[in-house]
Specification:
The complex is a heterodimer of chains A (561) and B (126). Chain A is an all-alpha fold and 561 residues long. Chain A has helices at 2-22, 30-35, 42-53, 56-69, 71-82, 84-98, 103-110, 114-146, 156-204, 209-218, 259-271, 275-281, 287-322, 327-330, 344-393, 399-423, 426-429, 436-461, 467-491, 496-501, 504-520, 528-536, 539-560, and strands at 222-227, 230-235, 333-334, 337-338. In chain A, strand 1 and strand 2 (230-235) form a beta hairpin. Helices cover 57% and strands 3% of the residues of chain B. The chains are: A mainly alpha (561), B mainly alpha (126). Chain A: Keywords: Cell membrane, Membrane, Symport, Transmembrane, Transmembrane helix, Transport.
Chain lengths: 561, 126
């Protein structure tokens, strides 16, 4: 098992590095390194965005949340997918038409302020770090289950964290946006293929999706709890109906009356502020292409999450009966219920595909982690290398120096996130949060949706937005979100605690209100009209389309000759 | 990678890595852009309100309509589960296609000069 897994892993890592080398940026230019020359087509970019977005939280976390909480867990998937609707409606096309390198760059240029750029860099780095750490945790958990042994004296968990961080850092440093785009697109297709395969083998084994939901809903939901070193099954209380147990197909397994809405708002707004996702729109050739890319993303996301929900349900239904005759399951379950919900898709893979099946699903999980880490590292590099180094530290930097500054930033951020992931012990946190990976990612969404998204949307759609307003809005949004998240453990996870854990419903309107109020007392940029034409005009799009038609026409004429 | 085939020309006016698009001889009049902006904003806000209404309606129905959580639709699944597990994804996609198609059509009609590509338009009038 270990040999097969290691061989598969080695093959994957080598393929990633070779792709990075083959598709490395042409010439030392930040335009190529960060934006892939702005020539990424609609379908390629949609697949790359999916690879970027579908992290361990999606691949392992959504199925885990459904496994642990039933219907309430489904809302994670709904929120993740729903986030792209506002991106399509309000952001994708104008953001691309304005055409910068990153969110801080966009805000700094749109509002003509270096201060805005620096505040945005701070928030972006906080979002990236809180998104990176759970990815590294996911890679550690996956290695633990896939290989089960560490190297160089490290624990299996630490080995997973270190190996994934080193491999993907090498890809980003070498391949830049071009190499990363292609590997992310291929990685997404691999993830989708793994889910489709798993859904096919599970369904063909006789699993009835609707029937299982009905059966699971007949019995109260249970979860493993550890008391005095002993594991036992405890019941999951219904948060909508105190004193009653929760059921798989009914609401209340995870959220009280406010919980679903606050989670959805947090995930929807958060998507619009995620730096690694928004940066991908800058690589589209036109604003219209960016818009159509989002349509593709929504289609692909719907398919992916519908499969994730099915697999979470299948795991809950099938694993109890599978324990008999499979001693390896006894060690990770309590009376047929997994101790770590994130293991659900992996265990399904092993049940239906043996060691090879486990290896395939685990590789998928690692791929999800690697592709998201790659996007986050690139976004971080764009922020440090372009927004800080090129703009403030060394404005006279050559393109070569600027690219190397970005590469150095990638390495520093990677080491920091791996260090934080190694300091965490996810098993001890599982009792606190049913799905730790998805929960930690929610924190990143909360910060992005509270601090960045409101200012971002206002800057695109309201002429009156000013630099002072944006700084105040981002500051208030970030401080409110962090303050509420920090206060949450002291309040508990019920009632008010639900709002504190998913604070965007409070923090985002507050940030927007502060932005508007302060903006009304200050002046917008002097050349607002020119900025507005660039943001909402389509002249550059039409020019690009005309050039493309000419190129195609010339190509066809050449072939005819 | 260049699956769209579009290769816009970008230039760096102050040679500080600040690449901006070159619109060539294409031009948008400020009044046209403003009118288009307002129309696209109406499209976006309208679709967003529909989106928000449906997304918020699901948990609200859960709290207020017993059949939504207890009824049986497909082989034992509740309406609430069917909607969350599949229905909403279909709705998001349909909404996205509608909004993108309408926004693209608005921009195509209100900005640019469709006559430009018509043969003979650059000729002097008789």
């Amino acid at each position: 098992m270990i040999t097969a897994s290691l061989l598969l892993l080695a093959g994957l890592l080598v393929a990633v590095l070779v792709t990075g080398l083959v598709l490395r940026p042409r010439g030392a230019s930040t335009f190529e390194f960060y934006l892939a020359g702005r020539r990424v087509g609609v379908v390629t970019n949609a697949c790359a965005i999916c690879g970027d977005y579908f992290s361990a939280a999606s691949f392992l976390g959504v199925a885990a949340a459904v496994y642990a909480s039933g219907l309430d867990g489904v809302w994670y998937a709904t929120g993740f997918a729903a986030g792209f609707v506002p991106v399509l409606l309000f952001i994708a096309a104008p953001l691309r038409r304005f055409g910068e390198f990153s969110i801080p760059d966009f805000l700094g240029r749109r509002l003509a302020s270096d201060r805005v750029r620096l505040v945005a860099v701070t928030v972006v780095q906080l979002v990236i770090l809180s998104y990176l750490v759970p990815q590294a945790v996911g890679s550690g958990l996956t290695w633990e289950l896939l290989v089960g042994e560490g190297i160089l004296g490290l624990t299996p968990y630490a080995t997973g964290v270190v190996v994934s961080t080193v491999a993907i850092t090498a890809l980003v440093v070498v391949g830049g946006m071009r190499g990363t785009t292609w590997t992310q697109a291929a990685q997404f297709l691999l993830l989708l293929a793994v889910f489709v395969w798993l859904a096919i083998v599970v369904t063909s084994s006789g699993f009835s999706y609707p029937g299982s939901v009905a059966e699971l809903t007949d019995q109260p939901l249970t979860k493993p709890v550890q008391e005095d070193g002993q594991w036992r099954l405890g019941s999951e209380p219904n948060r909508l109906d105190g004193g009653e147990p929760a059921y798989f197909g009914h609401p209340g397994g995870r959220y009280g009356p406010l919980g679903q809405i606050t989670l959805i708002i947090t995930l929807i707004m958060g998507t619009a502020g995620l730096p690694h996702i928004m940066n991908r729109y800058f690589t589209s050739p036109t604003g219209t292409a960016a818009r159509m890319t989002t349509v593709w993303v929504l289609g692909l996301a719907g398919l992916f999450y519908a499969l994730a929900v099915l697999l979470g349900t299948a795991a809950r239904a099938l694993i109890p009966d599978a324990v008999a005759g499979r001693p390896w399951l006894e060690g990770i379950t309590v009376d047929g219920v997994l101790r770590v919900p994130e293991h659900a898709p992996l265990v399904l893979g092993r049940i239906f595909g043996g060691e090879a099946g486990l290896a395939v699903v685990a590789i998928g999980a690692l791929v999800a982690v690697l592709s998201t880490i790659a996007g986050l590292l690139l976004a971080s590099a764009a922020s440090w290398g372009h927004d800080v180094y090129e703009r403030h530290i060394n404005p006279g930097a050559t393109q070569r120096q600027a690219v190397w500054a970005g590469r150095a930033a990638v390495m520093v951020v990677a080491v920091l996130s791996a260090g934080l992931a190694l300091g965490l012990r996810p098993h001890s946190l599982t009792a606190l949060f049913p799905s730790i990976v998805a929960t930690m990612v929610t924190w990143a969404f909360a910060l992005a949706g509270s601090a960045l998204a409101p200012v971002f949307i206002l800057a695109i759609w309201w002429r009156g937005t000013t630099a002072r307003g944006a700084v105040a809005g981002m500051g208030v949004g970030a401080l409110t979100a962090v303050g509420m998240l920090v206060a949450a453990p002291f309040v508990g996870s019920w009632g008010l605690g639900e709002v504190l854990l998913t604070p965007t419903i409070v923090a985002a309107p507050l940030a927007a209100a502060v932005t508007v109020l302060v903006s009304r007392r200050s002046d917008p940029p002097a050349d607002l009209e020119r900025l507005w034409l660039r943001l909402h005009g389509t002249a550059a799009d039409r020019h690009a389309a005309r050039l493309a038609r000419l190129t195609i026409g010339v190509g066809r004429a050449g072939k005819r000759r | 990678m260049d699956s769209s085939g579009a290769r816009p020309v970008w230039f760096d006016p102050d040679e500080r890595g600040q690449w901006v698009p070159d619109a060539g001889d294409e031009y948008d009049a400020p009044a046209d852009v403003d009118a288009t902006f307002r129309t696209v904003r109406r499209v976006a806000v309208g679709h967003f309100l529909v989106f928000l209404g449906v997304v918020v309606a699901v948990p609200i129905l859960t709290l207020t309509v017993a059949w939504w959580s207890d009824g049986r639709l497909i082989g034992g699944m509740t309406p609430s589960f069917v909607m969350a597990a599949a229905g909403l994804y279909v709705f998001f996609f349909v909404l996205a296609v509608a909004a993108a198609t309408l926004s693209n059509a608005v921009e195509d009609r209100m900005l640019g000069d469709p006559e430009r590509d018509t043969p003979g338009q650059d000729e002097e009038p008789p």
